[in-house]
Amino acid sequence: MKRAHLGEFEETVLLTVAILFGNAYGFNIKHEIEKRNQRKVSIGAMRTTLSRLEKKGFLVSELGEATKVRGGKRKRYFKVTPFGKKVLEEVMENRQQLWNAIPGAAFNF
Amino acid sequence: MTPKEHKPSPPKKAISLLRWFCRRDLLEDVEGDLHECFDFHVKSKGAGTAKWLFILDVLLLFRPGIIRYFNIFPSLNSNSMLKTHLKISWRNLLKNKNHSLINIGGLASGMAVAMSIGLWIQDELSFNKGHENYDHIARVMQHFILPKPGGSTKWVPVPVGSELEQSFGNDFKYVVTSSHTEDHIISKDNLSFSANGNYMQPDAPEMLTLKMLKGTRTGLGELNAVMLSESLAKKLFGEENPLHKIVKIDLKHEVKVTGIYEDLPKNSEFNDVSFIATWALYVSLNKWLQDSSDSWEYSSIQTFVQLLPHAKMDIVSDKIKNLIHDRREAHKNLRIETSLHPMSKWHLYGDFEDGKNTGGQIQFVWLFGIIGVFVLLLACINFMNLSTASAESRKKEVGIRKAIGSFRSQLIHQFFSESLLVAMVAFVIAFNILIFTLPWFNEVAGKQMDIPLSSPWFWISCIGFTLLTGTIAGSYPALYLSSFQTVKALKGTFRSGKFAAVPRQILIVLQFTVSVTLIVGTIIVYRQIQHTKDRPVGYSRDGLIYLKVNTGDVHKHFEVIRNKLIASGAIREMTESNGSVANYAYGVGGLEWRGKDPDFLDNFHISEISPEYGKTVGWEIVDGRDFSREIISDQKGLVINESAAKMMGLENPVGEIVKWAGKDWTILGVVNNLIVESPYQPILPAAYRLLDWPGNIVSLKISPSQSIRDALEKIEAVFKEYAPGVPFDYKFADEQYARKFNHEVRIGKLASVFAVLAILISCLGLLGLAAFMAKKRTKEIGIRKVVGASVFKLWKLMSKEFVSLVFVSCLIALPIAFFTMKSWLQNYEYRTGVSWWIFVAAGAGALVITLLTVSYQAIKAATASPVDSLRSE
Asked: Entry's InterPro entries (chain B) (predicted)?
């Protein structure tokens, strides 16, 4: 089976969306990544990644209710799809296999 | 009351930028995220930093995936929209056939005029451009500044060329001395032709970049060399190779053909030069030239130069300003300036005043250019007027289109596609008109223009021109019609207000102002031509012919030929001369007579004649007597014209002695003024003397009792007998005289064609407008008729508006025409007046034409049965 490709940043975003289950929208995701990974994320970079992931079918989104904050703009909530979950698992398994394949002597410094 | 907390807000500019470029489906949540981010930053870092971070974030959003799809190319949908637009336009055209006919017909004729004028201007501007060194070639001009009136001439003294080379050599690449372009006989064996040619120095072919078909450009090195144009070579040699063959010039001088060059194009100054012989040969043949080789007094040759690439034309021209003046010995009180006249200005800027280049043909380029633009503008105005007038009937369409969701921009597109369609159809028709009328236009304009079908520039400009016309013509209707308010247009309450017709009225006034001005202009040009044609010429042109004789044969047998021809009854009289009834032989100054003011600068035009001249041309002796063959001392006599007598200020000139060239001449008689050079100029002071060597012109007065054809046959037979080598190439004096008007007649013809077209197009427009007005007021007219209005009253009602508009145009046009034509007439010394009746006639004419045009529609509407117009509804 051909595996869907998942980049490093994409993986981070996808995982963060899963962490923030039920409350995963733009600013929150950005904030969460910045907090956990200690790196700056621009809204532009994050938003394009989100769109890309949605297009690949790893995410779905829906608009929430309008609130007074955010200049009256609605939030877009993201949720990981089963396919998204499968891809994440595949990535993890793949990493696991790679780890398992490392001979013991390799890390004996 | 707690004061409302001041809440910082993100920069507005950045938000609108975001809103502009961001994808529509992403915009809402992205903007929300940015907002939230901003609020977060305000709390953690302060409002100022937050603002900057906000802007930075927006800029970072400017990346693929976020930027929306900009519709740069029309999508499929608008293509099909365009298709419907075109379809509907086409249906509209077919629906209103008359309207479309007027529209397209008017636009097509306007375009045809503009296109022919465009070709003409293109041709005018392309003059001499065929010569590769176009930018560096110039002709030396001589300007007589004092005495007044001075004048400018391309004839310069013989040593000018060599002096330029010696003293100013490092500015010039080539200096070429040349003879006039003269008529000579070129013959081979027993074939002989009359051909124009120049005697030039050897660098000429290189300077003029002649395209050599045979031989090289260096062919004029030997004394007896000649280069022939392709067409002359064909005439002389047919298919034979002419190189190194011998031909004769004027039946005497044998020269060897060393090159054949491609005929120079019609728009070259040297177009009529069909052979080039060597300057050295010219000098060796003409004793007067050898005598005057060092003389700065006589101007008899031309000098062409080609500048080196680094030399600037006007700087060099300034350097040689005093070239001739400083080297003259006699008459130092004359002020003479020398300058270079660049090749690029020969054709369009040929006029000089006080040594300054003042213009010339270029004014006609401007004039016709403006006329072309105006005629096209008239046609565009028609289109606009008709479209806006028909707006009434299309307002429902606009209303419905808007109601079912059409944007204004779509309506504008629709009307533009309509006008572009009309423009394109008109262009196709105009193009066909152009193809059919071009031969005629060529004849009138005296040109040889082709439609440059293979030139991409031609097509680009044609397409651009059509688009431009369509856009101009369609702009007003498109913008006006699309501005209707939906509700009003549908409810029928839409009333074009009191001033809605004002732009239309202004356009009509503009149209008729142009037309009336053109009419007045045409009438005055024609009157000026007629006025000059009616000017008494002072001699009799009937049956007067003359021909060039370059060989001495006629002179040798003059008595015999004359007696034979008179005896046969073919002619009345015959004479030989240098100079003809069309031109004087040369001009001189510095003559002296009793009582002459020493400071007076005189200027005589001289013709050398045989004693029969007066009887041949039929001049009138006012005082004294004519020359006589019997009186030997007449060789030292002069006959002057009245103008010369006036200039000399002598009360009784007959018998006075005139000193000229170291000799004493007696004035034998005074003749009436003959128009010899330009019929528009005052009569030049002239003096006639007897020939002391063979003349180059023979004039014959055909006997009135003979038919011209018989007489010509007899004359030819006698000439063939005694002067077999002379081509019998006679010219009729009256035809030659008429040719002096060619230029003016040409302008008159063109101007009248344009004037007629202008008025025609304007009337077409009026006709269409009147038809619309009549249609719009059908019901009103019906009711008026029912209540008892007469046909006359209705006619008056309908025509009043147009007539008053045309009247206003006349009021505007007449002063414009008056001042323009007055200044045009200033160009002519002998001119007609601008009389008031011309203006009255033109104005009345315009009014009558308007009335006729409008009345057709008015009467049609007024005589229609009111039942028909009132029955519906």
From this structure: ABC3_permease_C (IPR003838), MacB_PCD (IPR025857), Macrolide_Exporter_MacB (IPR050250), Permease_put_prefix (IPR047699)
Contact B33/A45, CB-based, under 8 Å? no
Total number of domains in chain A: 1
Residue B40: list chain A partners with CB under 8 A. 27, 31
Residue A16's pLDDT band, with cuts at 50, 70 and 90, is: very high
Answer yes or no: are the C-beta atoms of A13 and A51 closer than 8 Å: no
- Exposed e or buried b for every residue in B326-364, given b needs 16+ CB within 10 A? ebeeeeeebbbbbbbbbbbbbbbbbebebbebebbbbeb
ipTM of the complex: 0.88
Q: What beta strand segments (E) does B567-691 contain?
A: 571-578, 586-588, 592-593, 604-609, 621-624, 637-641, 657-660, 663-671, 686-690
Tens digit of each residue's pLDDT (9 = 90 or more) over B14-30: 888 888 888 888 888 88
Q: What is the DSSP letter of B676?
A: -
Question: In this predicted structure, what is the pLDDT of residue B4?
Answer: 45
The reply to whether B695 and B816 lie within a common domain is no
Nearest in space to B355 (alpha carbons), one of B334, B333, B340: B340
pLDDT at B181: 85
Quote the tokens at residue B71: 């519709």
Q: Which of B15, B29, B52, B58 is the best residue to mutate to test the A interface, defined by the most A CB atoms within 10 Å of its own CB? A: B29
Asked if B164 and B209 sit in the same domain, the reply is yes
The number of CA neighbours under 13 Å toward the Cβ of B231 is 11
Q: How far is B72 from chain A (nearest CA, A)?
A: 23
Residues B411, B334 share a domain: no
- Are B572 and B701 spatial neighbours (Cβ–Cβ below 8 Å)? yes
Asked if the bond preceding B3 is cis, omega within 30° of 0, the reply is no
Between CA B197 and CA B275 the distance in angstroms is 5
Indicate whether A106 belongs to any domain. no
Number of domains into which chain B is organized: 4
| Residue B200 covered by a domain | yes
Q: Residue B274 in contact with residue B197, Cβ under 8 Å?
A: yes
Nearest to B65 among A27, A51, A69 (CB): A51
Q: In 3D, which of B212, B194, B210, B179 has the Cα closest to residue B280?
A: B179
Predicted pLDDT at A1 = 40
**Which stretches of B635-741 are DSSP H helices?**
642-648, 708-722, 733-739
Asked if B671 and B712 sit in the same domain, the reply is: yes
Question: Which residue of chain B comes nearest to A52, CA vs CA?
Answer: B65
- Residue-number span of the structural domain to which B166 is assigned: 137-346
Give the CA angle between residues B503, B509, B515 to the nearest 5°.
Answer: 140
Low-confidence ranges of chain B (pLDDT < 70): 1-6, 71-78, 147-150, 330-333, 391-392, 489, 492-500, 872-873
Q: Which residue's structure tokens are 């031109």?
A: B583
Structure tokens at B707: 């038919």
Same domain? For B163 and B272 the reply is yes
**Closest approach of chain A CAs to the CA of B77, in angstroms?**
26
Q: Are B351 and B154 in contact (CB under 8 A)?
A: no
Which domain does A22 fall in, by range?
8-100
φ/ψ bin of B645: left (φ > 0), alpha (ψ from -120 to 50), beta (otherwise): alpha
Task: Please indicate whether, in this complex, the C-beta atoms of B29 and A75 are within 8 angstroms of each other.
Answer: yes
Query: Residue B385: its pLDDT value, please?
Result: 77
Q: Is B735 inside any structural domain?
A: no
Task: Please report residues of A whose CB lies closer than 8 A to that of B61.
Answer: 42-44, 47
Residue written as tokens 């063109």?
B750
Assess if residue A1 is contained within a domain: no
Residues in chain A: 109
What is the pLDDT, as a whole number, of residue B639? 92
Rounded to whole angstroms, the Cα distance separating B135 from B344 reads 7
Q: Does A63 touch chain B (CB under 8 A)?
A: yes
Q: How many angstroms separate the CA of residue A37 from the nearest CA in chain B?
A: 18
